[in-house]
Design goal:
single chain, 561 residues, alpha/beta, Rossmann fold, Nucleotidyltransferase, domain 5, 3 domains, eight-stranded mixed beta sheet, seven-stranded mixed beta sheet, elongated
Length: 561
């Protein structure tokens, strides 16, 4: 072993091995190095030291749950880890990174957090363990500072804030995101869109996300998708009961200190929304997302359209399902989203069966997308919000695409805006303008529908937006840094359900009668029965009704050509 006088040091730090310093290894040291390479848990427990609040610098003795955590992290490419506060997720992750960079050459690890200072805190844990390794187990040090290190074997570790530009242009073998749930949604969205695909392009690159939950945000999406097998992440949850000494007495003490909401979120690790959200925490906690059966070009389909079932007698045995599409519109320049939600209103509870969201679609293309989906969902009724450029969308749908099932709004001086049958008049508009009254009624009714399980929502993006749809002054809106482009169509749907006209849309007998009439009209048009050609022209021109218009022909057969 080296004496203190001849210890090679890096920049005067006697605890770091100087670059290029040669060591004559003794046989037992080589044996220990092999043991450490073969068994990361052996390496951590025998050579990594951490600072204990009660005992100072001590060996890092892993709990059983932490041993499992080490194996999961090191043996999988993509891991998402969720556990409560002060359970050692950061220090354990730092120990895994130390093992990874110490015994593998030319590996680069990026440690990211919501702020650069938080990322450097993880780096300090790594550096503290490294400095307390025996010199014969260390690599020589090329670079060593608060934000980055480089070892003699070519492996590097650096820190950055989670942003699209944080690691742009850098080759990364392992990305670690600490306290991922704290990162604001807008920053996380930009990062995962711009940077994440590049990192995961390699066949051996790794990603680790660890956090305590904080609402239904991007972290919840990754976790929920991992639970349902929608992504490649291995999810690992470690409950507080897996930590020795944390029993029911400890939990009761924590609850008394933190309060029910923080205890539920930070100790029990339940995904909760803000205490100021439109929906209460209990409702948000029970909501779960389903895997779409179809996803393409920003459209997610949860249920196929319900078609009519005909009986042997040619009559409708089961009417086709009825749908409403509520449309929100943006300018298509990368800010807010243009979005619409498809809702099955056949019977209560109503169901969200599809959704579309894109912040790049132009107002000229958007109506065609709405039109296609509406036609597929049994000519769904369409309600367009006409604030801003929404009027343009409604006009294109009705006048250019000639879509008839538009919901018209009558501006009543005393009642405000009311859904009508679309009769002509100066007070009738094709779509609803979201004013304070409409929004107030819509929010109140939406809360009643969802909390009373009369509107079922299984879409992960909508659930996420619900968790950040918070009280702002005397109304509700997306929290800072978040979006509400999918919630607002549901607010307008809530308002729609309070209108008497909505009962006609959900009238089962009325739909059945209408469908039978449509079938009868189609049969009449396609089967020209009852006409006898006696070789003479009809003395009286034949008349018939098609699409509500009266047509007159000299020879009935001409109408079926």
């Amino acid at each position: 072993m080296f004496s203190r006088q001849n210890k090679p040091s890096y920049n005067g730090n006697n605890r770091l091995k100087q670059l290029g310093f040669a060591i004559d290894y003794e046989p037992w040291q080589l044996e220990e190095i092999v043991k450490c390479i073969d068994d990361p848990i052996y390496f951590i427990e025998n050579y990594c030291k951490i600072v204990s609040l009660d005992h100072g610098l001590v060996p890092f003795k892993l709990y059983d749950c932490q041993k499992n955590k080490v194996n999961v992290i090191l043996n999988n490419r993509k891991v998402i880890l969720m556990e409560g506060r002060q359970q050692g997720k950061t220090i354990t992750s730092a120990a895994c990174i130390l093992y990874y960079t110490l015994f593998q050459d030319n590996k680069t690890v990026a440690i990211l957090a919501n702020k650069a200072a938080a990322a450097r805190e993880v780096m300090s844990r790594y550096q503290g363990m490294y400095e307390n390794l025996p010199l014969w187990l260390q690599q020589g040090v090329r670079e060593w500072n608060k934000g980055s290190i480089e070892l003699e074997n070519g492996s590097k570790v650096f820190t950055a804030a989670t942003a699209a530009s944080g690691i742009r242009g850098k080759s990364v073998n392992w990305l670690y995101i600490d306290e991922a749930a704290i990162i604001p949604n807008n920053i996380a969205e930009e990062f995962f869109t711009a940077t994440y695909p590049t990192i995961m392009a390699g066949e051996t690159t790794k990603v680790l996300m660890s956090s305590t939950p904080l609402g239904y945000n991007h972290f919840w999406k990754f976790w929920n998708d991992a639970e349902q097998g929608l992504n490649d992440f291995v999810n690992l949850f470690i409950p507080y009961t897996a930590i020795p000494g944390r029993d029911e007495k400890w939990a009761a003490e924590q609850r008394a200190v933190l309060g029910d909401v923080k205890f539920t979120q930070e100790v029990l690790c339940n995904f909760l929304g803000s205490s100021y959200t439109l929906l209460d925490a209990d409702t948000l906690g029970k909501m779960s997302a389903r895997r779409p059966i179809y996803t393409k070009d920003h459209l997610d389909v949860l249920e196929e359209p319900g078609r009519a079932i005909m009986g042997d007698d040619g009559k409708v045995k089961t009417p086709a399902n009825a749908y409403v599409i509520v449309v929100d519109t943006s300018r298509g320049v990368g800010g807010d989203y243009s979005a619409f939600v498809v809702i099955d209103i056949t019977s209560s509870p109503y169901k969200v069966v599809a959704k579309y969201r894109d912040n790049r679609v132009t107002p000229l293309l958007y109506p065609s997308i709405i039109h296609t989906v509406a036609r597929n969902y049994n000519n769904a009724h369409i309600l367009v919000e006409i604030n801003d450029n929404g009027q343009q969308i409604a006009d294109i749908l009705y006048h250019e695409l000639e879509y008839e099932n538009m919901l018209w709004i009558n501006r009543d001086g005393t009642k405000g805006q009311v859904v009508s049958g679309g009769f002509a008049g100066r007070t009738v508009q094709c779509g609803v303008r979201t004013d304070k009254k409409v929004k107030r009624i819509g929010c109140s009714q939406l809360k009643t529908l969802v909390e009373g399980q009369r509107l079922l929502v299984w879409d992960k993006d909508i659930i996420s937006e619900f968790s950040t749809f918070v009280e702002v002054k005397d109304s509700y809106a997306a929290d800072e840094g978040y979006h509400d482009d999918l919630v607002m169509p549901l607010v307008l749907f809530g308002w729609l359900t309070t209108n008497p006209y909505f009962r006609d849309l959900t009238n089962l007998n009325l739909r059945e009668t209408m469908y039978e009439n449509q079938i009868r009209q189609i049969e009449d048009e396609l089967t020209p029965f009852g006409f006898i050609d006696d070789g003479r022209e009809s003395e009286k021109p034949e008349q018939f009704v098609m699409d509500g218009d009266l047509w007159t022909v000299s020879n009935p057969r001409d109408s079926w050509l």
